[in-house]
Amino acid sequence: MLLSHGKFFNHRENRTIDFPRYIFVEDGASSRFGEALGGFAGNIAVLTQKEVLEKFPVIFDLLKQSAESMVSYELSSVPVARRLMDLSLSVARQHPEVVIGIGGGSVLDSAKYVSYLLNLPLIAVPTLASNDGICSPVASLFLEESQRSSIRTKMPYAVLADTSIIIDSPPHFTMAGIGDIISKLSSLEDWKLSNEKTGEEIDYFAWTLSKTACQSVLHFRDPSLDNEEFIDTLLESLISSGIAIEYAGSSRPASGSEHLLSHAADRLLDYSGIHGIQTGFFTCVVLNAKGSRYYREVLEFLDNLGFFRSLPRQLFDCDLFERVVELAPGIRKRYTFLDIINADDLKTAFDATCSDIENLRLTRSTADQA
Ligand SMILES: [Zn+2]
């Protein structure tokens, strides 16, 4: 899939909307790195983690050949904004023309932030399909060691997602991508709710883009983690969701009550949870509480993929959920379903969702043993 480059000025909102110049999602996408690198012939800053570049010999060889000078920076798996500001100063001293980020979600978040601080184009090469940050203007960073926040940055100049590499990534990361894309069902319903209750304007292009992305995954004919076409569809859907965020000028099309619950859980849990696993789970709870027609469909879709095996046990803890419900509405000023449901009804839906998931698990393990 290739989209042409464009900066589009939205006169009504008086802001520029930025689209990537290249989006390659395919088996062997890394072999098209030369096209994305195009006219950049000066210094190049590569932000990655140990051993990741070895997975991309084509990219590594091209970088060595075409760059006047390539400097590789080793990133930590915890993206802390303050440390990245320091890193940006070191990167700036090399006067690069372009930043290349190669790795999982945290690496891309870091590379996005560094390229934003230095106002340089970013070529993003994801190694995971774990969330819609692959191609969005938002980076999820720690402002302090323990508090993760979404920071507005800018869109990548190019994205190269090589399905042949991503298909071999640890399954729970791909499950997370599925959970993050499914969560748009709940986010979009919240956007409509806010439109009805507060008059917040809906951007229907962004709404449709996000809805179509989610439906393409949910209604895929034969979804499985080893089906390359499904992984392609998942990646393209995550990218479309990121583009919807840029188009709307906010994360509204991609983040609603389920994301608030997940962000609250991040602050309360003593481990660093995987974003898409949490948002996928809380989407089920919210859809159930809303009495949504999608609830059963989503539950069965996720169960068939084995999604619930990736859920950490802590998320089933009622006491934790009570604290999550208290904290979630204050995480961000955004009108959502959490503003109209009372805490007891939400807890009832949580209990019912947990038992539905347990029952599905039991049915599955009995069927597996038979
Ligand atoms: Zn998300």
Task: Give a brief outline of the structure.
With 370 residues, this protein is α/β, with parallel strands linked by helices. The chain has helices spanning 33-37, 57-66, 81-93, 105-117, 163-166, 171-182, 184-198, 204-218, 228-248, 257-268, 275-290, 294-305, 318-327, 343-369; strands at 6-10, 15-19, 22-26, 44-48, 70-74, 98-103, 122-126, 138-144, 147-152, 158-162.
What topology does this entry show?
Blueprint: E1 6-10, E2 15-19, E3 22-26, H1 33-37, E4 44-48, H2 57-66, E5 70-74, H3 81-93, E6 98-103, H4 105-117, E7 122-126, E8 138-144, E9 147-152, E10 158-162, H5 163-166, H6 171-182, H7 184-198, H8 204-218, H9 228-248, H10 257-268, H11 275-290, H12 294-305, H13 318-327, H14 343-369
Parallel strand pairs: 3-10, 4-5, 4-6, 6-7, 7-10
Antiparallel strand pairs: 1-2, 8-9
Bound molecules: zinc ion.
Structure description:
This protein has 14 helices and 10 strands. It has 2 domains: 6-166, Rossmann fold; 171-369, Dehydroquinate synthase-like - alpha domain (Dehydroquinate synthase-like, alpha domain). The mean pLDDT is 92. The chain has 370 residues and is α/β, with parallel strands linked by helices. Strands 3-10-7-6-4-5 form a 6-stranded parallel β-sheet. The protein binds zinc ion (ZN). Residues 131-132, 180, 254-255, 259, 275, 279 line the site of zinc ion (ZN).
